Amino acid sequence: FLCMVDYPKVAADTAMVNGDGAHGHTEEAESKQDGNGEADGGEESNEQEVIVIQDTGFTVKIQAPGTEPFDLQVSPQEMVQEIHQVLMDREDTCHRTCFSLQLDGNVLDNFAELKSIEGLQEGSLLKVVEEPYTVREARIHVRHIRDLLKSLDPSDAYNGVDCNSLSFLSIFTDGDLGDSGKRKKKGNELEQIDCTPPEHILPGSKERPLVPLQPQNKDWKPMQCLKVLTMSGWNPPPGNRKMHGDLMYLYMVTVEERHVSITASTRGFYLNQSTTYTFNPKPANPSFLSHSLVELLSQISPAFKKNFTALQKKRVQRHPFERIATPFQVYSWTAPQVDHAMDCVRAEDAYTSRLGYEEHIPGQTRDWNEELQTTRELPRKNLPERLLRERAIFKVHSDFAAAATRGAMAVIDGNVMAINPGEETRMQMFIWNNIFFSLGFDVRDHYRELGGDAAAHAAPTNDLNGVRAYGAVDVEGLYTLGTVVVDYRGYRVTAQSIIPGILEREQEQSVIYGSIDFGKTVVSHSKYLELLEKTSRPLKVQRHSVLNEKNETVELCSSVECKGIIGNDGRHYILDLLRTFPPDLNFLPVDGEELPPESQRQGFPRQHRHRLACLRQELIEAFVEHRYLLFMKMAALQLMQQKANKDTKTDTPAITETSETISESNNGECKSPLEGKELEESIPGLAQAKELAETLVAEDGSCIDPKSREVVLNACKAVGSISNTSFDIRFNPDIFSPGVRFPDDSADDIQKQKQLLKDAAAFMVSCQVPSLVKDCLDHSALPMDGATLTEALRQRGINIRYLGSVLEFVDKTPAKTQLEHFYRIGISELITRCAKHIFKTYLQGVELSALSAAVSHFLNCFLSSFPDAVAHLPPDELVSRRKSRKRRNRVPGGGDNTAWASLTPSELWKNIASEAQSYYHFTVQCDSVDQVVEKYGLQKITLLREISIKTGIQILIKEYNFDSRHKPAFTEEDILNIFPVVKHVNPKASDAFHFFQSGQAKVQQGFLKEGCELINEALNLFNNVYGAMHVEICACLRLLARLNYIMGDHAEALSNQQKAVLMSERVLGIEHPNTIQEYMHLALYCFANGQLSTALKLLYRARYLMLMVSGEDHPEMALLDSNIGLVLHGVMEYDLSLRFLENALTINTKYHGPRSLKVALSHHLVARVYESKAEFRSALQHEKEGYTIYKNQMGEAHEKTKESSEYLKYLTQQAVALQRTMNEIYKNGSNASIMPLKFTAPSMASVLEQLNIINGIIFIPLSQKDLENLKAEVHRRQLLQELGKNEEPTEDSPLELEDKIPID
């Protein structure tokens, strides 16, 4: 249901977002091109389209049996079904599932929208009327009761089922934040805080315990309502009982140990007289017939009645975000030992092939392909239509991902019959629940020339990236398959939706476009060319010709492997998109081809495992963007020359020369990340020339005078554009594909295309890698663990196979010490990835019964200092002697060898080192885990976390002694589970995202109110598409909270940030770096709201997580410790405060350099604490350091320098006064006249002010005049920047502290 949004003047703002011809937005505008060739993309084209959906909610009264009528706020767009959902969740009506809603005696249709119901208006009374049960309704009822009983039980989250996941925030905030703030008296809160953190959180502590990761939640000690609730063995009812209305039988044991047998009949539930061994379906006396199971149980079991009521009270008190399902399953790598209780619903689910609630869907199994494609075909002319369409696409995708994951696990666990059972395991294929599964092995030597199994393993992820890219372009009429890649127990499984009719035909007949043998035979098809042509510009794919086996020219607009098949449903499908993006020549040595010198200097090309190494889409975009700037510069330079030549009346051949020289110097490289700037500053008047150039390029090259046309032509040639009149770069993905032949007449083009690929490869090495390192140096990129490091690389288009090169680059950087955190995370990522590769093959040979023994043995070899880890083989009585050799290895996960048991730690580390060398071309010097930890400063607990997350291992949460030399750290009892690692497409909410971006832009320009409105709008749209839980909603909430805070609305900031923390815990994981940052923000808002002890608890939690995820030596730790130190200073814990602030000072000095403004601020904070302790000498010393930095960086006149100098004077006076007093005491003893000294505890306001500064927040007193001034100031700054006045930015720009309105 659309949470109805009302649109303020949206159209004008969106026009800004959708890009009025700005270069960056061309793809968006194009991807929205409609099939009929006219853009309906930006709302700017037709403002009337933004339909204003009026949000006129109204209130209805609801009367349920046995309860008082209550009011419910509804909106006209809701369906009746949603009122059902509300009632099934409300505390007083949650036990009802089988009822209808009636208005004046008429039953409402469940799927009708409220606005379509006659007579339903403000104040109408809806009656809840109990309906007779059917078998389906009775099952739903039992399932619902079971869900209510388990609603506080975290076991589903630990087991990774039903999209449950963990959240611990409420333990640290003691329930809901907002209220507890009002309840406590502000004044006396100071006395009752115990501020001392646990020992392991203090700076310098070496211990890294695991148990605090999951603090004990007292709510989880479940109140037992029932001992057993299961299906009875007497099911299904015999014919004669069916005719009495019996639907099924249940068996229960109450807390009071009463064993009862219950009949579910059409009229409700009643006790019957059956026992375990005798069947007597007659009603007992009394039978307690009740319409709901809860009513029945409340009558026969007092404990049930009491505990069920208490449980529901607790359930509704929890924050909804703690219990809503996430869109995709999140797995926890640690779990406590959970008792395994009897659970009939879980048991039944496990043994039926149905997925969860799918019995609600007629026809049982879902036709995934039909659902995925139909949702794509929904209309998208205006906003409400697009929202509906995106919501449907997203929902089907998340359902499909869940089904595919479950199916893939079933396949590997051997629970699905292959469709070709006669073939050997690796070649088997499976169909389950209308999804097709294949294993990542090289079947029938398909990939033999491309690298065999290694290629077969890489192909599915490449294919998935292709599916993602084509899905994002979203061309009408072109269809891709639902694709999910699952890694589980060492196997890679690809799950795909099934093209209708493909299973009945041979592949040769069905493929009407592309090639099934890597280019030996090729066919093409006009309709496919027309459809793919629409994708060619956004995806930068060059239309090209290849030769088929008869030497005829065939035209393609994709790589040859991309196959086109028309399904029986008449849709045009494309599949095998593994070469959507062009090959990466740095990892594809080709005989007789030379790479540019930049690549060669770094030791490229390197041999890779397979020949499918592609460039990432992000790299292609960055490269094209870079070329575009170059193109503009060249055109501008030539225009200037023409002007100069006009003035001196010389001839014009000079032009072509410049273009030559530029294209040489800029052959895909930027010499240094600043190269662009220097060029501009060295040539006066370039800016105007650039504007001129832009006008030339904008007009499509037709109406320009010949001279200008020549300028554009030269510039086009120099940057490798495929058109001569405008900038347009595209790649031919078939270059360097073995087996693909090109016609002779295109030899020149092919040469150019090869050159373009070489330039792109050089661009990666000379531009993208240095820019990543530069971003880490100036802290605009701050990876904290493997996942965030990977993300930082991928955002810049750097593939993970470059990790070794990136680390080498860091190693050679002069500022290496300021990159230590990055280097350490990189090394740990590289090592755990190598270990993952080895683990994958290791697991393939392990049979199911030895799985936990094998995993614990591997972890011992990887992490334990115990030198001779010995594996425990399962005892002999479990291994049947009569194993027939013939049936061996029939299921994929059914190896039965014990080779794994012979792995030793030294052998594993040797393998890791050789894997690092061969895959990443990086030398790791190590023979054991302890050497590595010592040499690179790693933590074993961090390595454990990284390897567990990457491989899906779940371990028991307890303290592991990794360093014992006498016994191994892990036993097989410590391995609780092994989860799948799932890759899938994440469909996006495009409109919401545009709102979000324009909101961010507004905020950065200083228009806070407007920004806030846009972001609220975005939040509504996100909720509309994704439901309540999603990563992007989390970002939205965080930004909103920050804006609320800046605008002085602390309570609102707290509420939004609390949601952001909960959502981050649930969707990303309880110790994900993002969650750590959300905790820090929440602590700040708590402090501002006067909840000091909560703020400290949250900061301590963040510090604990940070220590575990990346250790103490990390720039982000300085910020965290400054926060903790300031709060402790505020509550007068001076000594403790100093420990944290001095640690922050050390880290800041290390990572920002001793002359940085951050360090000056750190000195000042430390000085303030010394002042409070009346240790003026130390205070002066620190403040002087800070003063010196301010003076050198910003000059005497700057207000920061003045402030510091004032403070120095004040400290000196205090010090002198103290000295006088001391002298007086020495001289006159007890009868000295002592001047009262001012020992001031810091005011909360001053602490808060410092907190805001270090967290980069400035307050805007929101008077209109101030706002105008601010806008003017921001505008003036932008102008300055455009005019290039600020030529040499100081090492930390002086504006850093107070003037940025930060957007995280």
From TrEMBL:
GO molecular function: mRNA binding
Keyword field: Cytoplasm, Repeat, RNA-binding, TPR repeat
GO-annotated cellular components: cytoplasm
Domain Clu: start-end pairs: 346-588
Region of interest: Disordered: 17-46, 645-673, 1282-1304
Compositional bias (Polar residues): 651-669
Start-end of Basic and acidic residues biased regions: 22-35
Pfam family, one: CLU
InterPro entries: CLU-central, CLU_dom, CLU_N, CLU_prot, GSKIP_dom_sf, TPR-like_helical_dom_sf
One Gene Ontology term from the biological process aspect of the record: mitochondrion organization
CDD domains hit by this protein: CLU-central
Cell compartments where the protein resides: Cytoplasm; Cytoplasmic granule
Matches recorded under PANTHER family: CLUSTERED MITOCHONDRIA PROTEIN HOMOLOG, EUKARYOTIC TRANSLATION INITIATION FACTOR 3 SUBUNIT EIF-3
Entry function: mRNA-binding protein involved in proper cytoplasmic distribution of mitochondria. Specifically binds mRNAs of nuclear-encoded mitochondrial proteins in the cytoplasm and regulates transport or translation of these transcripts close to mitochondria, playing a role in mitochondrial biogenesis.
Family: Belongs to the CLU family.
Protein name: Clustered mitochondria protein homolog
